[in-house]
Predict the structure of Lysine--tRNA ligase.
Amino acid sequence: MKPDRFELARLEKLQKIVELGHDPFGQRFDGHESLAAVREKCPAEPGVLGDAVRVAGRIMLRRKAGKLRFFDIADATGRIQLLFSRGDLTEQQWELMGQLDLGDLVGIDGPLKRTESGEISIQVQTLTVLCKSLTQPPEKHHGVTDIETLLRHRELDLIYTSGVRDKLLLRSKILNSVRQTLGGQNFVEVETPVLHAIAGGAAARPFKTHHNALDLQLYLRIALELHLKRLMVGGIERVYEIGRVFRNEGIDATHNPEFTMIEIYQAYGNYETMMDLTEAIVTNAVRAVCENSSTLNAQPSTPSYILPWGEKSIDFSPPWPRRTYADLFREHAGCDMTNLEAVQEKAREQARLGHIKPDFIAKMNEGHIHPDVVVSEVFEACVEDKLVGPIFVIDYPASICPLTKRQAGNPLIAERFELFIHGMELANAYTELNDPKLQEQLFLTQLEGLSEEDSMAKMDMDFIQALKVGMPPAGGLGIGIDRLVMLLTNSHTIRDVIYFPLLRPEVQPGKGDAT
């Protein structure tokens, strides 16, 4: 690609840096401190020289005042002002400073000093070029405003958009909190295969690939479940995995084809055990966010369980309410979920409102849709958006839960819950089915008449064989990590909490529209 005039000007400066005897792309730079740590050391009294410090950062701002030059540099912890005075530098160093541009990375040695206006500064004695940037940064007052550009060039977003890097760094704090909570309860973290011979464990369309050496069709995993249960059979009684899963489906505010899940299994527990665990995981993560965030305006209670959500807030204070699926259906859909005629009429009403697809109604009218699937569709249309939460929705229709143990004395109800917060499903959990014969029967029932992507689970004979060895009664839990980070960082699209969300190919000039 031909360089533009800005890049050409920077290339000229790069050449000048080389002529001055410096490497324009830098070398190892040991012993530097974070800017936040350095700022703490600055003398309180203006004009007094403090300790000599060594820092590194990116140039974000520059200006001149007479014979002085002022630069602002930034690192991951903050910003600081640099003060260049011709009397403090050699002729070569002053000339080297003249080759700097916004976006360049520099190393600085010099004493701290507070200016008369109170600005914490470093009086530069030695300048080291660490990397010459060849790209013109966004215009300083407006930055990058095109969302597509920000997402496609995430590095610019991280550097120049206020709060983006802090939010994404909070993701790591949240993950650390999750691991600490589970480690404190003796759970073991494992890694299981990403390539599966069977696309099982969830209802989703998989990505397909091919292994050449074995001439074998494989699938990128759509869930973590079946391998983790096999590990539980093998004696790892408390096990979890935080991993990427892949679903060949649409993209919207809460869905990305590649996303992060945590799945957790606890032997000798049930879905009530997993409700307690879910509450602990999330509330501990909320506390971690409040302790580490200066930008989310968390409420000042101690400990704080309140975080902002747009113009509203979410109160995560435990304990959280637990409501049955049937009660919520009756409350918000206005009929009993066992009344097939009323449920179907409600489905037709929601279709007229645009909340259920017409082809679903056509299949329902022809008798090709299981009644409980109609109930599920109406629940999604009428109930989920009403669930402010956090709220545990418990006791689902058994027919839509093929991996779940039935309620004692009521085989039509599955011991399953989903956690909803502001209408968003965050967690899904079961009392796990460990009867191999019933599991095999349910797999077959689910597969009858359903397309591959519509079936809730695929027949995995290795998993059935593992159940025959004997899996302890257990609770199982899945939490969408990206959605958890969204809720805890006041982010209303999943793209804001994934470093590199999937995008369409960029349209090249003269190439026409991307497909």
About this structure: Confidence is low (pLDDT under 50) at residues 295-301. The longest strand covers residues 49-65.
